[in-house]
Amino acid sequence: MSSEAPVSHAFGELLRGLRLRAGFSQERLAHTAEVSVRALADMERGRTRGPHRRTVELLARGLALSPEEARALEAAAARGRARDRPATAPGPPASLPVALPLPLPRDAHDFTARERALAAVLGLARDTDTAHPHVVVVSGQPGLGKTAFGIHAAHALAPLFPGGQLFLDLRGMDASPTGPREALATLLRALGVDAHAVPRGTQERSGMLRSVLAERRLLLVLDNAADEDQLRPLLPGTGATLTLVTSRSALTGLEATHRIDLPLLRREESVELLTRIIGPERVGREAQAARDLADLCGHLPLAIRIAGQRLAGRPRERLDRLAGQLAREERRLDLLRAGDLQVRAAFALSYRQLDPASRTLLRRSALAAKPDFGPRTAALLAGTTLREAELRLEELADRGLLQADAAAERYRFHDLLGLFAAELVAEEDGPETAGPARDRAARWTLARATAAGLRFDALRHGNADGAPDPDPATAPVCLDEARAWLEEERAQWLACLGHAQDAGWHRTVIDTAEAMHWFSDRTQHWEQWVEVFRRAADAARSLGDRREEATHLNYLAWAHNLCVHDHRAALEAARAAHRAARECGDALQTGWALGYEASALRHLGRTEEAVAGFRRSIACHSGNTTPQGRLAELSALNALGGTLRHQGRAEEALVIHRRSTGIGREGVPGLSPDVLTLYRASTLQHLGNDLAALGRWHEAEEPLREALAAFEAADMPAWSGPVHLELGTVLRRLGRLPEARAALRAALRRLTEHRSPRQADAAAELRLLDAPLPAE
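Predicted structure:
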């Protein structure tokens, strides 16, 4: 058995587990058991050597323990009390079980968190089912503290298992893990079977172990298991033995087991572990640095422990100094080592267990953009088939080397594992292999992005002809599928666009950005559009194509105005677009540039200049009868009316927006009906706001509702959020407060999600709901 300190600590852990199982806070149990909160806290932390029998009785009564549980709690307390009694004779106290050849390793005095997992194991320990003995599999990525949890849980549960506790390291990460035949012999000898009586065959040994365990109430900890074949012969068939298995593999083929997948620590738990290692004084002096350290360690227990022990060995070192060093990604894994503990070494053990193809897939996946990636990206980077990538990614997730999304076929690295994999790419592949892998993934991804984006083109009516998909068999076949792919793979195609620009693929950059133009209207809340259109404008400039440069500078001005609300940058981009458009004689782009410039001026408070700019834009478009020209004129008319309303000239705005309504009613030949519906909805939104500005609240409601329905049907939350606000304001003025509150809450939620400046307006309107209406 272990030393005295874990013995007294075991009472505290057992008590805490019983309290958590009962759903009691410390305050509630203290009140029920008639003990002080401080005394209870000291007992749970192991500071009390062994509470008096009367105290234990009160606790057992307060927790409504069964007689067996009460006896186990008293036994744990008695073992703690024994520390204060002088030994009358050598040897262990008579109340302790006989020492076994496979004792539990020493428990960590600073073990932190995992209360939920501990409570789950405690519940199984008291739920004895002799016909189906419980097997608990604790799994997770390297460095999560699975072995530490298994040891800690075993010490806490020891009083419930009078037959003893056995701990066996199965060496699953070794080149040659312990075979089941050898492990069975070790367990049988530990249970008192004479070496000469141990059978020769694995099956016979397994049968003997089951016979022995059927008569014992034992806690069996099988640490570091390799696979199911290694484990199955070691598991009891009947009896009251609880088996606790730890493994880096999920062991999904093991039947009839209870599974505990240890998560990363929460931030506050990470700081608590650091505090227990280096002391509250140091953490208290540098609280923010402690939180930064936790974040830089990725809330991985092994990394935090290494950082803590490194600091403990350097009592004068400041926490912010180490945090500053760890902030440099290229040095992070080098610094996360203390003595024989190394994060890199822990990862390398798992990496070496993989076959060559899985190693390639793991390290090449580090070339994918964060935060996550799909099987296709991994396949392209590794140079393998999609099917092969799908199978191997699942295997890597089962081994804890990748984190799988619970709802979608997406994978991500833990930050530190990602750094490790990136090191492997540099060491084992080098630029001569990694470069072509990136090129292959970028070309395929941008081809798919271009084809998907073109489905939203207003003049193509959802048809992507002219931009063939690189894999027609898996290509999106409708707008919903195209949007889903573009959203899911946003990080990847955006990174590939940057790679294309760096590689000098200027035409590819321009074509991809142009294909995204109409789709960007539907996802106006994406800040990334600034990057997309800036890259395209730069690519056009590199090619010396002033027409393309004007077009993408206009898109960039739009993105600055509506996506990130940087109106000074929008003004600069629009003026640059105006110069380029005039140089090449493009009237359409000249008109758009004038409109985007006017929009920026309006937001900068220069409304008179904005009105003049919009009128110039309308004049530029008025003679253009192409679909592009009619849409441009419609946009400029709506923007002019909105500016006039903002100036208090709602009657003039209403006249202009009725003109816009006429254009929409006439239709625009060659334009996608879906897109025309959205332009009509935008005009209806303006009409509703004009009528509201004139105090015509009843008339304002219907056009606003129609606009809202169109934007929501198209799944355009950046457009529907403002309409929710405007409709909520109208409903408030109409005295329909419950409807107004629902609309305004929806507005606040969406405007906040999309970081819109108008979220303050929604909050203000909600505050006005109960205010008296002003006199008409």
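Summary: The first helix runs from residue 4 to 22.
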